[in-house]
Amino acid sequence: MGNKIITVGREFGSGGRAIGELAAKKMGVKVYDKELIKAAAKASGLWEELLDNMDEKPTNSFLYSLVMDPYSYSYQFENQNFNQNLNQKAFGAVYNTIRTIADKESAVFIGRCSNYILRDYDNVLNVFIYASEENKIKRLMERYENITEKKAREMIVKQDKARANYYNFYTPYKWGSRASYDMMIDSALLGVEGTADLLVELVDKL
């Protein structure tokens, strides 16, 4: 039997990462979330700090400058393609790492356009996890201490906007659109464990 892959797109606060992690545990495979950054940096030779600062961020993000020297600021303004080229290199490193891992082992990938990157693989279940705003706010307030409902709502809007901009730029698909995934599911319907069980059952049928 070939490798079995699950890709998980998720709204912020929906519990998508927890579902992916539990599904991977039940499958006895690795889950790749932030671990992708370390692997991509090692394989590409790019700085891990650079990839981490650009991870699932819009392409106009200035965060990459944290690991550049001061002279890079002036150079960027002289060369309008500099930032874009750097973003393309960062995305290319993640792209190649995801495909390399998928060729070697069964795994669960969290976000990072993984459903698009593995679009030509037959052994992949692409899912998108969402939830109502009420449930997402509740989850975030339980996860983070001392945050208000207003702050939780602001975090959801900011993170989902960044993920959507990143995904929509690097793929011809639309983030969160049903046409982009095999299945979309409200995490409140079955809960974290129930949803993870469903994903494992479905991927086993591939």
Strand order of the largest sheet: 2-3-1-4-5
Tally the helices. Answer: 9
Q: Classify the secondary structure makeup into a structural class.
A: alpha/beta
Radius of gyration: 18 Å
Compute the separation of the termini in Å: 10 Å
Number of strands: 5
In which range does the helix fraction lie?
40-55%
Give the overall silhouette.
Answer: globular
Task: Quote the average pLDDT.
Answer: 84
**Can you summarize the main beta sheet?**
5 strands, parallel
Q: What order do the SSEs take from the amino end to the carboxyl end, as H and E?
A: EHEHHHHEHEHHEH
List low-pLDDT spans: 60-83
Q: Per DSSP, what share of the residues sits in E-state strands of 2 or more residues?
A: 5-15%
Protein model, in words:
- This protein has about 210 residues and is an alpha/beta fold.
- It contains 9 helices and 5 strands; from the N terminus they run βαβααααβαβααβα.
- The protein has helices spanning about 15-25, 35-45, 50-55, 70-80, 80-105, 115, 135-145, 150-170, 185-205; strands at about 5-10, 30, 105-110, 125-130, 185.
- The protein has a 5-stranded parallel sheet, with helices on both faces.
- Helix 1 runs parallel beside helix 9 and helix 7 crosses helix 8.
- It is globular and about 40 Å long.
- The model is unreliable at about 60-85 (pLDDT under 50).
Keyphrases for this structure?
206 residues; 5 strands; five-stranded parallel β-sheet
How do you describe this structure in short?
The protein has 206 residues and is an alpha/beta fold. It is built from 9 helices and 5 strands; from the N terminus they run βαβααααβαβααβα. It has a 5-stranded parallel β-sheet with strand order 2-3-1-4-5, with helices on both faces.
